Prior knowledge:
Elements (H helix, E strand, L loop, with lengths): L1 H23 L4 H12 L7 H13 L3 E7 L5 E7 L1 H12 L6 H13 L6 H27 L7 H30 L2
Antiparallel strand pairs: 1-2
Helix pairs in contact: 1-2, 1-3, 1-4, 1-5, 5-6, 6-7
Amino acid sequence: MLxxxxxxxxLIMIELLILYVILKRDYTMYAVQKRIEENFxxxxxxxxxxxxxxxxxxxxxxxxxxxxxxxxxxxxxxxYEITKNGVNELKRLILEDFSDNPxxxxxxxxxxxxxxxxxxxxxxxxxxxxxxxRAMQFKVLTENALKDxxxxxxxxxxxxxxxxxxxxxxxxxxxxxxxxxxxxNS
Length: 186
């Protein structure tokens, strides 16, 4: 069950990254992978084995269209282009609710925040609120786990929990900065 949920979130993130990259320009599958690596390597590095079915799914959902072109060297290349449905799907994926898993949340939130320039101001406000609220929720959960007198927390767990609290606090500060910037961009 948990593995299925994790795989589902990975597939969603791959589709989001593909749509975001192709939003900027039409690309081949190879170029899509390169753009994702260039822009999102710290968060995601999908293989061709993951990209190909994702591109196919997005084309079946009419989020992408493809066209075949012959290169100067005589090689057939398939170029992918985002459709209006694809732009709507990209926004939907960015604004979709987050996982209840804190590790997946941080990874997905980083990707979604990195792609938030394609949203309008109100959509960004909604995303930032959602990210900040969930990060605060996870921070409080971690603080409570550290304070729970009934738990047998060893030194190493305490260090990791302290670090996790700092990580969520820093993440909240980043989102507050994005909120401030968004509010100033009328």
